[in-house]
Write a structure and sequence with these properties.
By secondary structure, the chain is α+β, with helices and mostly antiparallel strands. The protein is 39% helix and 33% strand.
């Protein structure tokens, strides 16, 4: 997320980067109370990976039911298909 925030800062300024980061963080926090609200899109390291779209990015995450924890494994721009293929079924 730091890399993305720096990129947005360079391209669009601090204000826009701050808005993006706030939206992503707010979206991540909602996963705590609604972890199954988003569809399973694939599997990564034996975990069902779910995807939540936020602006032009996708938050890939899995739910560890036994530990009651949501882990975000990556945040990827929607245009980066090769990175998205890591998590999504073909």
């Amino acid at each position: 997320m730091r890399r993305i925030t720096r990129h947005i800062t360079r391209d669009s300024g601090r204000g826009r980067a701050g808005q993006w980061l706030t939206r992503v963080m707010d979206s991540a926090v909602t996963l705590e109370s609604h972890p199954y609200a988003f569809s399973v899109v694939g599997e990564f390291e034996l975990e069902d990976i779910r995807a939540r779209f936020v602006m032009r990015h996708v938050l890939y995450y899995f739910v560890d039911e036994s530990a009651r924890v949501v882990t975000i494994v990556d945040v990827v721009h929607t245009a980066r298909e090769t990175e998205r293929e890591r998590y999504e079924r073909g």
